[in-house]
Each structure stands twice: as C-alpha cells, then as structure tokens.
Amino acid sequence: MGKNNDPITRFKVRKSNDLIVAKYKASLLENQVMAIALSRIEVNADNDGDYSLEAHLYPGDLVRLISDPTHIYRDLKKLSKKIIGRTMFLEDGNGNFKAFAVVPNAEYQDGVFTIKFNNEIKKHVFNLGKSKSYTSFELAIMTDFKKSTSFRLYEVLKKDIYRIPEEEVCIQVEYNICELRFMVGLANSEVSFVKDAISQSREKVDWDGLYDQLDKSDKSYEDWQDLQRYVLKPAQTEMEEKSDIKFEYEGIREGRKTKRILFTIYRNIPKNPTILNNRQALIDAGMNRQLEMPLDMYPALYKEFVGHNDLAIEDITLLLTKAAGDQEKVREGVRLILEGIGEDINREGLIETPDRIARMYCELAGGMDQNAAIHLEKRFHVDNADMVVEKDITFYSMCEHHMLPFFGKAHVAYIPNGEVVGLSKIARTVEVFARRLQLQEQLTAQIADAFMDNLHPQGVMVMIEAEHLCMTMRGIKKPGAQTVTTVTRGVFDNNKELQDTFYQMVRL
Questions:
Q1: What pLDDT, on the 0 to 100 scale, is given for residue 298?
Q2: Are residues 116 and 231 in the same domain?
Q3: Which of 324, 377, 383, 401 qualifies as a FRET site for 37, CA 20 to 30 Å off?
Q4: Phi/psi at 308 (5° precision)
Q5: Containing domain of residue 383, as a range?
Q6: CA–CA distance from 259 to each of 152, 188, 247, 248 (Å)?
C-alpha cells in the first residue's frame, strides 16, 4: 500500500446517509467537534462481551475551533450541556423511524475531552464499505466552514453527488424547502410536537405543516429572500472556495410561495486550495496529539484550559507539549506490519488500529523532544548535605532492540551541594528519559547525568529494577526475571559506605 501524500485526504469521517439527513439543530462548534469525534470513535469491549463507543479529543483538535484557546475548558462545558441527551430521529422513508440520544455523556479530564456515544451510532460509522448509503468527508474541509448552515448544507449536498460515478460532473436534486430547513438547523426539530409527528407518522411527514406550526422563535430566515441572502449564497461562496463541491440552485414556486429548491451540484476544485493546505497543516500538527502553546499563555491555561487549580505550570507544559514524530509514517508502518503478518487491515477491529498505535507511540516517545533540565531549574537553598532519596518511582519505557516495553521502579539519591529540587521533579526527570526508545543501562546513566549537569550535587546514585517483555514474551521466555542496573557519580563513586546507605534506604 502506497503512502497517501494528498494533504487534504489524510483525515476523513464516514457517515451513513440516514445520519446525514437526520433533523437536528446544532452550532458550528458542535457540528465540527462531532465530526472529529465520529472520525475518532473506538470500540472498547469489556470481559462480558459488552462494548462502548468513545472518542478522545486533544487540545490540538479543539484549539483550532475555539476562538480563544484560554477558554477551552469553559466552552467545552457549554458544548457538553448542548450535545448530551440530544435526540436524533432517523427515518427510512417507509414510515419507520429510530430515535436515540447520540451522546449519553462526555467528560473533560487532564486536557482530554472524551465523548461517549450511544451504541446505536455504530452501524452509522462502521462497516459502511459494503453499502452505497454512506458518504465520506474530509475533515480539512468540514473544519473550515464559518457557518453551521453551510456545514450542514455541505453534508446534505455532498451526500447526493457522492453516489454518482466519478465521470459525471454534476447531479440535480430537489428538496422540500421546509424539510431542508429542519435538516440544516433553521427550524427547531426539538419541539415536542415535531418529535411526536416524526415518531407517530406511518407515512411521509408533512414538513410544510410542521414548519407552519413553529413559533417565530423556532425558525430563522423564513422569507425566501432572506434564506438566499443569509444561507444559500454564503454557502455557495464557502463551498466553491474551500470544498470539493459547488452548487447552483433554483426556487420552485407553488402558488405564491417557494416550496421546493432544485440544486445542481458539481464536483469542484477549490478556488483557494491554500486554505485547505493550511488547515491540513494544522490538523497534521494537532490531530491525535497534543498542541504546543507559548509559555506566556500558561497562566491563563492554569485556570481555564486544564480546569484543575492544583496542577502546576510544569504539569500544563507536559500536557501541551507536542508529541514528536510523523504520525502518518507510523500509521503506514503499522499497516505494512499488519499486512506482513497476514492480517486484513480493513476488518472492523483493525481499521482504527494504525491511528491508535500512532497516537500511542507519540505518547510513549514523547520524551524524545523534552528537556529534563526544565524540571531541575527551580531549586531551593539548604544548609545541610544529607542524602536525599526518592525510591519506588514507577516507570514504563520501550526497549530499542525489540520495541517492547520494559517497566519497573527507579530509585534516585543525591547529596546536595547547597541546593535541592522538589521531590516531584525527581520523578519527572525519570519520566522524561523513560519516554524514549531506550536501553535500561542508558536510562540509568541519563538520569544520573541530568542531575549532575543541572543540579550540580556532590554526587548521585541511581538504581533501576525492571522486567523486560522481550525476555518475558519472546526469546528465552522467563517471566518475572528482573534486570538491575546502578550508576554512581561524584562522591558515590568508590564510596562503599554511601552506596550501602543508599541500598539500605531503598530496601526499607
């Protein structure tokens, strides 16, 4: 399988056409966040055979959509209130319908926004390849719209042209104008009598009648001229400039009212592809990974972004540091591995695996572009020179020989030379070096050298005890075998008394 180098086709969302024509009202932010989330759904099965559908969105995904990034936490609270419990009605055109709350709950923890979907959504985003009743969208396009109505109209019209052969450049489709208003959010479908009418109708829904019953506050741009000026023409402009389709339209009158709209939908090469390329660059930088932000934003993020006032600035720094690496290369590598071992990369359980592993490796290797010195910069004066020991620091790392995990505990001791660091900074220093492809021997030495180079103590001693899965799962297959490495620096070198004191304190 060749690498996809098209800058606007790396991130897609597929939706069933039933889901696309569902009637609901949502803001632009809601629509765009939900589009990203639907592209990111993971199926998580438990031991009882039940499963849940979740999507995890990171700072880099969200800050692009929210005008003030320091208010992400606040805005996501508002967003969650709107999307949780919203009922969606799906009709099959034969008098049958299904109603369900798309998002039962959502949560925001440690900078990650998790959306939990109703299991009913699974059939509308998975295993769609055998059916013609779905449409694929580029997230690069969907996240560039400036109006919610343009977003929704794009989905509806793209659905129509998506089903015709590539050699056909256009298609004509006619829509009842009132039904279209409900689709794109210009008419409130959440009103009880609208819900009741949809759920009780055994025949075609009378959209004209339902629209006429709405209060003025539940409908927008009722006048045909206003609909053209504020909805249709702006959508025309946006789609032609930014998207892969464009359209012309004609109102069809019945009596004195325009009752239907005839759309002529064309395939399109965007007039301004730079917009797409720029957007995709942002997606490549932020999608599925955390976003790097300037230091001067941290005070605001301390309260607003993370939303947890007990987090220190360095916590936020780690949270927002961009993971290293090219995720597309990782994805392609995983696909090749799966094919190499004889797997079907298109089966349901593996479709999202390259994305998941790409995100995982960016997390596991996140220490490669981090500098441990940042954790050892803030120091405190002390008058004594008593040994400081931090033991049983749990860590996880990856062996550079087989790219399998090794994990265990690190123990660090140093003799101050007039200055000490906070105890948490010792653990953070271990974490920086552990999150790299590593040998245990190197890891032990790197931790010791970081203390000597930045804290300048009289001496340092580090011991690491770890189990290596390359010995447990393969090769010699000896589960439970422990590898122990020690490194001494400064006054710990050749000082058996200090070393014995360290061992005694570790074993207490």
A1: 41
A2: yes
A3: 324
A4: -130, 110
A5: 372-508
A6: 20, 18, 19, 17
